[in-house]
Every structure is written in C-alpha cells, then in structure tokens.
Amino acid sequence: MTSSTRAEWLIPTGLIMLTIVPMAGGVFRLADLAGGEVTPENARFFAAPLPVVVHIFSAVLYCLLGAFQFAPRFRRRRPGRHRALGRFLVPCGLAMGLSGLWMTLFYARPEGDGDLLAAFRLVFGSAMVLSFVLGVAAIRRRNVARHRAWMIRGYAIAQGAGTQAVVTLFWILLVGDADGVTRTLLLGAGWVINVAVAEWIIRRRPTRRARTSAGPAVASAGGVAAQ
User: I want to staple 18 with a disulfide (CB 3.0 to 4.6 A). Which of 27, 68, 123, 162 is the partner?
Assistant: First the structure.
C-alpha cells in the first residue's frame, strides 16, 4: 500500500474509530435487553424494545459502512459499489433517525434528561432525516454536488454520539463530572462540532476545484500577455 493510499484511508479509519464507543454502548444495551434485569433506568426499553433495537442496528451499520463512502479511491474506482452501498445506507440512516425521534417523543425520560436535551435530539434528528431525503432527491436530479453536501451533513449528525463521547471524556479529564445542564450542553456541542466540520468540508471543496481548473487558464492568459 502506497503512502497516498494510506492517506486516503485515514478519514474512513478515523470515522470507524469514532463509532467504536457508541457501538460498544449499543452492544451493552442489547445484551442487557437479552438477559438483563428490569431496572428503573432500562424499564422503558423493556416496555418497547423494538425502537431501541432498530436504532442500534441501523446506527452501527450506517456509521461503520458509511465511513467507506468517504474514501476517494473507493468512489472513483468502484462507482457501482459506491451507489449500491448508498442504496443500502440510506434506509439504515432513515431507520436510525426515525427510531431516535420516536424514542425521544415516546420513551419516558431518564433522570437528568430535560427539555433542552429533548429539543437537541428532535432538532438534530429531524435535520438528519431531512438531509437524507434531500440527498436522495438531489441525486435523482443528477445533482452530484448537492447530493454529496446533504449526505455529508446527514453522516456528520449521525456520528454525533462518537464526538459526544470524546467531548465528554475531555471535559471529565480536565474539569470533572458532567451532569445536568453541563452534560446537556456537552452533548449538544458534539452535534454542533460535527455540523461545523461538515460545512467546512462542503464549502472547501468547490473552492479547491475552482482554483485547480482556473490554474491553467490563468497561466495561459499570463503567457499571452507576456508575448
């Protein structure tokens, strides 16, 4: 594997690593549902297990497999597989978002989850679902640039749990325990950071393309002027 190939896989690898912590939490939750005891903290999941099971499976599949869509070589050399994987991932992303919205609206809130956190979950969950819908609508119109932009936004929101784990860990190491409003704001910061990075990536790409395509033209014009 060449150095350029390794560099191209840094982003997918980082995204997969970001998925590990929430994936471990999901595995623990499924194991708890399969053979654990009902407690006040998990009673809502035992009362209606389907939404949380759908959410965990769809989130893990979407975040893990979706990371490969960010490998440029994979998209260029295997466009058929890129499209096939996208057709599988969109339903996973929609299932993840819709199940998350359902849980926010209908599950009993655990202690410490207030109205602000519920509002964050509803806003970002709805934005994620809308991003997938708009991304599919864009590619059906063959607007590749807009499709990529909306899918990047949707994936960024979907990876919120991974960034939240990192942000919260740093806070605990530097400051101490996070609870109440502090915990809510840290969770919100995870989504905001991801969305900000996504917007930076989206706005950075056209500029780079424009500079690359404009380079030869500017050079030619300069040559004619010199003559």
Answer: 162
Q: Which tokens go with 88? A: 């599988």
**Residue 109 CB neighbour total at 10 angstroms:** 12
- Which has the closest alpha carbon to 125: 27, 196, 219, 59? 59
The reported pTM is 0.85
Q: What is the 3-state secondary structure (H, E, C) of 177-223?
A: CCCHHHHHHHHHHHHHHHHHHHHHHHHHHHHHHHHHHHHHHHHHHHH
Taking the domains of the chain in order of start, what are their residue ranges? 3-206
In our burial notation (b when 16+ CB lie closer than 10 A, e otherwise), range 18-48 reads: bbebbbeebeebbebbeeeeeeeebebbeee
Number of CB atoms found within 10 A of residue 126's CB: 15
